[in-house]
């Protein structure tokens, strides 16, 4: 056998004649020019099990396979293995070397989020690891993703408002040169909805679905969901009741017998305020005001 040749195969994405291909590139040992290479392409069919999709014998230090939507689809994790052998004596083979798995499709970074009901926006990056090919649509080459959220849990439909809010309902992945495992990327803001309910830690998922003009490769593809865990934070309460007795967030108590419209509460950090309207409800004997209306933003 030939000794280990440190071929170090690496998979990179590439557009070839407007179609998405993966390229397996490996090192050619300068001390052994008379080598041929067997390159086997495979995909992860089930966890821990690979399925061969193509086999090449080549004199070159690279090999291509097309992502055609049939034997290689978006969402696949792809590997290439390379074995070298002498042209004159093919029984002299090197050790087989395998590339790292290349995930072809749309990725979310981070792959899961843990956030709290504190009003802070968290950035979710959405990227495509393969080039976006648009034959005949080069002036506006993009994939549009429709975004949605879903609460998980037994009684999700009974829990009121959604768990998370997104900064956009649709995002575009625009064609760009591939670099560092990204061929197109965009950012999305994710915020936990402050719902004033003590509903514990809840889990939602964010889904992205390609819509609009698509070729065969994108047509049947739905990227993996992102899990978002929302930690419940205790909520403050303030009150105005009967002939208005008022208890503030920090427990201070006072009365407001006046008639009119008053600012009950305003946040200094976000768009939130509550106005109360108080009318006379005491008749002729005593001047008493009662809550009769509320406006909340």
Global mean pLDDT? 87
- Which residues form runs of ≥5 with pLDDT under 50? none
Number of domains: 3
The major beta sheet can be summarized as: 5 strands, antiparallel
Shape: rod-shaped
- Count of separate DSSP helical elements: 1
What fraction of the residues are assigned to beta strands by DSSP? over 45%
Report the CATH superfamily of the largest domain.
Answer: Immunoglobulins
Distance between the termini: 76 Å
SSE string = EEEEEEEEEEEEEEEEHEEEEEEE
Number of strands: 23
Q: Which fold name is given in CATH as the topology of the largest domain?
A: Immunoglobulin-like
Secondary structure category: mainly beta
Q: C-alpha Rg, in Å?
A: 30 Å
The helical percent reads under 10%
What would CATH call the class of the largest domain? Mainly Beta
Based on the structure given, which CATH architecture of the largest domain is correct? Sandwich
GO molecular function: signaling receptor binding
Keywords: Disulfide bond, Signal
Domain VWFD: 236-297
InterPro entries: Dev_Signal_Modulators, Ig_VWDE, VWF_type-D
């Amino acid at each position: 056998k030939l000794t280990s040749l440190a071929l170090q195969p690496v998979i990179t994405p590439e557009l070839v004649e407007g179609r998405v291909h993966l390229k397996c590139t490996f090192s050619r040992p300068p001390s052994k020019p008379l080598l041929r290479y067997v390159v086997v392409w495979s995909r992860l069919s089930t966890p821990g099990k690979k399925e061969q999709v193509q086999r090449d014998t080549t004199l070159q230090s690279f090999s291509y396979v097309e992502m055609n939507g049939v034997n290689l689809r978006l969402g696949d994790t792809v590997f290439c293995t390379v074995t070298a052998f002498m042209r004159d004596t093919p029984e002299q083979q090197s050790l087989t070397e395998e590339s790292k798995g290349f995930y072809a499709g749309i990725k979310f970074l981070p792959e899961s989020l843990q956030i709290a009901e504190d009003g802070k926006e968290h950035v979710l990056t959405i990227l495509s690891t393969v080039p976006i090919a648009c034959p005949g649509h080069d002036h506006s080459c993009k994939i549009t993703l429709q975004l949605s959220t879903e609460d998980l849990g037994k009684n999700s439909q009974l829990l009121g408002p959604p768990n998370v809010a997104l900064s956009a309902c649709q995002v575009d992945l625009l064609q760009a040169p591939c670099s560092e495992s990204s061929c197109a990327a965009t950012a999305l803001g994710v915020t936990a909805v402050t719902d004033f309910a003590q509903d514990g830690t809840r889990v939602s998922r964010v889904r992205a679905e390609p819509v609009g003009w698509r070729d065969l490769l994108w047509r049947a593809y739905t990227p993996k969901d992102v899990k978002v865990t929302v930690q419940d934070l205790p909520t403050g309460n303030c009150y105005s009741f009967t002939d208005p007795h008022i208890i503030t967030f920090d427990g201070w108590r006072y009365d407001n017998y006046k008639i009119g419209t008053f600012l009950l509460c305003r946040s200094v950090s976000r768009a939130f305020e509550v106005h109360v309207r108080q009318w006379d409800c005491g008749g002729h004997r005593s001047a008493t005001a009662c809550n009769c209306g509320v406006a909340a933003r």
